[in-house]
Each structure stands twice: as structure tokens, then as C-alpha cells.
Amino acid sequence: MSNSSISPIVYDYSAIIQLETASPLVRQFGLTRADLDWAAAGLLAARRDVLEDLVLFQKGGPVPAEKEPLDAAFMGLPERFLGRDRAVLDDILATADRLAGEVDRVVVLGIGGSYMGTRAIMEACCHPCHNELSREARKGRPRIYFEGNNVDNDAVAGLLDVLAADDRWAIVVISKSGGTLETAVGFRIFLDALKKSCGGDEEKFRRRIVPITGEKGRLRDLSKALGCPNVFPIHDGVGGRFSVLDPVGLFPAAVMGLDVVKLLEGAAAMNDRFRTAAPGANPVLDYVAVSRLMEVRRGATIRVLSTWGKRLEAVGLWYDQLLAESLGKDNQGTTPLTVVNTRDLHSRGQQHQEGRRDKLITNLIVEQSNRPPLTIEKSPLDQDKLNELAGKTLPDILRAALAGTNQAYAEDHRPTTDLRLPRLDESTLGQVFQMFMLTTIVEGRLIGINPYGQPGVEGYKKNMNAILRAKG
Ligand code: PA5
């Protein structure tokens, strides 16, 4: 599916290659073209493997034991919703419009993969002060709150205070398994408050709950018992942290009034590039090659996603989870770390400039702001000495900070690459989501770690439940 209206995101790793030619010393810290050529055969095999996984899943045949669990279905979601499941997408859009018309606040309950992508979408694509705007300025879309992602008593109580003052609110509860304690407990508490706020109007109460869950499980059963008119699926074969382009992310995005078709088209365009482009022109394969080689050959065991702008922080945190839960297995796996610049230049910057040489920094850059640039004006009070910068804009300052930081890193042979987004919108965000989900599974296949499933998370759940349910 090629779409000529897509502005492609660009993965640029030339700074690492250039390091090699600058001085013999930097051979220790950069990569050569020969390194990347060497990696190409393995990457192409991993791509074949990943594409075969999707076919295997779609055929529904037996899955080899070493590939269990095989949650490859996320790859096909963009094409599926834009094609044969367009009716499901239309239902998502219609229900989101209905809900947005009926309420002014929506509480989204969910944790991990059932939360982080939705938060990333909101922070990246909604007005930065969405919840503070008037309903008119929000174009009739509700305010959005996130809960069920912790068991923080005072945070929940605080949100209940806000909701008590307004009876036009609804719940979107998201859990694939339907049994996650944090979300289930949040649902019970907010359901109780919702019931009171609906004042005995059963029909209104039911219409104000939209569950998104797997085909089976406690939340599915509870949704039936409640008689919720709209329940959306989390498809079989779509793992939690790979579900942002399933109703998990699509429905809340539609409630926010965002363009979910553009989100899906962006992701489909990334699928195309992944399937067809050769190494060297394929952002998925190139990112894996560079990150992997830097890890095993140069000791860069920490992958810093250095986001340039506040609206990308939640995208970084979404990626932290994706990478950590997918590849942090068998005593392996690189450590992800999100930073937000320029903020974190004043906190982590020192360590990244002069600390241990164990980091690969990937800058996530938005090339053009969505709003007209704000300018430093001349002032009769020049005690701050900013008149000499008069005429410069905030984007000018951010660009200078990025260029200055990259230069300082390069001068000390600190490796950086750039992932550039022409703008920050649904289309580029869809590309970023799909790119990172694909890089994660390609890398998993390449190094022989199953990227799906998270057996290590079960330990705390088992212990917590045993502690809570112990008698006496
Ligand atoms: O990636 C995953 O599968 C996990 O992070 C889950 O999304 C998280 O544990 C929440 O699970 P559930 O959606 O079943 O409530």
C-alpha cells in the first residue's frame, strides 16, 4: 500500500560512519560501511523470518514450539483496518463520536501496553493543554485522564474529586487479559463512582462504559454482565505492547478527535518500506544494524532515545516498554532510556557527555513545529542580554541546542544517530510506532530471543496476589 501523501521519516546514521574517517581513534567508537555490509545478510534473513511469522499466524497453522508465543498479528493491523476491517474502524469512529458528544471527560483505564501508546498519542498529537481548554477549543472532544496504571490512592482520590463535580463523564477500560489487578481495581472504583453519577439511569450508565479487551477473560465477562453496548476487541495474536494500532490506541485516539486513518496510513507506509527497501535505505533494518553492532562491537548497551521536544516524552516511554519487555530476556537485552531535551541536558547531559562509554544516542527530532515560531523580541530592559538574540525563534534555539549537542558528542567520539520527523502528526507518529515495533521483532529474531510474551512480569503478580489473598 503506497501512499504518496506520506512525508517519510528519515533515519540518518551518517554521524557514526563519518566518525570512522575522522581519526584512527574513532574506529573504536563508530562503524564502517564494511561493518554494515557484513550485517546485511543476517538482517535480510531476519526480515524473511519476521514476514513468514505473519503468514504463519494468518494461516492459523501450528506454531513451532520455539516461536511460542507468536504475536505477529500487529504487523498486519494497518492494512487490515484500512481494508477488510474498515467496518470495524467505522464502528470505532462512530462510537467515539457518540461518546464525545455525550460526555466532557473520559477516564482511560489500562496499564503497560494497554496504556502507554494511548498516552503517547495524546501527548504527541493533541493540544499540549488539551484538558485545560474550553470545550469549544477542544472541538467538542472530551478531556482525557489516565488511571488504572498504578495503585496510588491519592492520585485516584484526586481524580474522583474532579469527576464528582461533573456528571458528564465516561470510562474506557482496556485490558487484553482482563485480569490485570491495577486496571481491574481501578475499574471497580470508577464504575462505582460512575453508577452514582448516572443517578439510577441504567441506559446512560451502560453507554458510558467502553471496554476494550480480548475475546475471553474477566473483563469480557464483566462487560457482558454490565450490558455495555460497545465492546471493542484486542485481536488474538496482538500482544499488549504491540497493540497501539488495535482499538487499544485507535479508540481513545478517535475520542480525542485525532485522525486515526492517517495514523494507520503512516504505519502501512512503514510496513511497505520494511518489506521492500534494501539495507541502507530501510529505516527498520538500518536501525537494527546500527544499534546491534554498536552494542556488540562498541559496548553501547544503553540505548538513549533523546527526544527533542516535550511532546515526544511519552513516545519515548512507550518505546522503553517495548524494548525492555521484548528483548530483556535470557540475561540479555539492551537498556532503553528516554530523555527529553533540552530539559535533560541539565540533568543527564553531564553523564552522556563524559560518563561511561556505554550509550548509543538516537535523537528523535521534529523538523518543523506545528504552530508559528515564537520570536524573541527586542526589549528596553536588556539586563538578560537577550537583545543580541532578538529575531531568533524557539525552533532556532532548539536547532542550535541539537547541533551544539551533536557536535560536542562527536568531538568526544560519542556516537549519535538521528530519526527525523518532518512534522509531528498522526502520519509521522504512525510511522514511528510501526518502525519501532518492527525493529524490536527483527532484532529479537536476529539474536534468537522471542520478542513476544513477558514471562518475567509474572513473578511480581504471583507474589502480590499471594500476599493480598493470604489469610490472617
Ligand atoms: O506488553 C504487554 O503485554 C504488557 O505490558 C501488558 O500490556 C500489560 O501487562 C497489561 O496487560 P493487560 O492488557 O492484559 O491488562
Brief descriptors of the model:
single chain, 472 residues, alpha/beta, Rossmann fold, 2 domains, five-stranded mixed sheet, 10 strands, 48% helix, globular
The CATH architecture of the largest domain: 3-Layer(aba) Sandwich
Cα distance spanning the termini: 61 Å
Silhouette: globular
Number of strands: 10
- The strand line-up of the biggest sheet is 1-10-9-7-8
Written description of the protein model:
This protein is 48% helix and 12% strand. It contains 17 helices and ten strands. Helix 5 (116-125) runs antiparallel to helix 13 (313-327) and helix 11 packs parallel to helix 16 (426-447). Helix 5 links the parallel strand 2 (105-109) and strand 3 (143-147). The protein has two domains: 10-65 and 263-449, Rossmann fold (3-Layer(aba) Sandwich); 74-258, Rossmann fold. The mean pLDDT is 95. Strands 1-10-9-7-8 form a five-stranded mixed beta sheet, with helices on both faces. A five-stranded parallel beta sheet has the order 3-2-4-5-6, sandwiched between helices. The chain is globular and about 75 Å long. It binds 5-phosphoarabinonic acid. 5-phosphoarabinonic acid (PA5) binds next to loops. 5-phosphoarabinonic acid binds at residues 111-114, 175-177, 180, 183, 239-241, 325, 454.
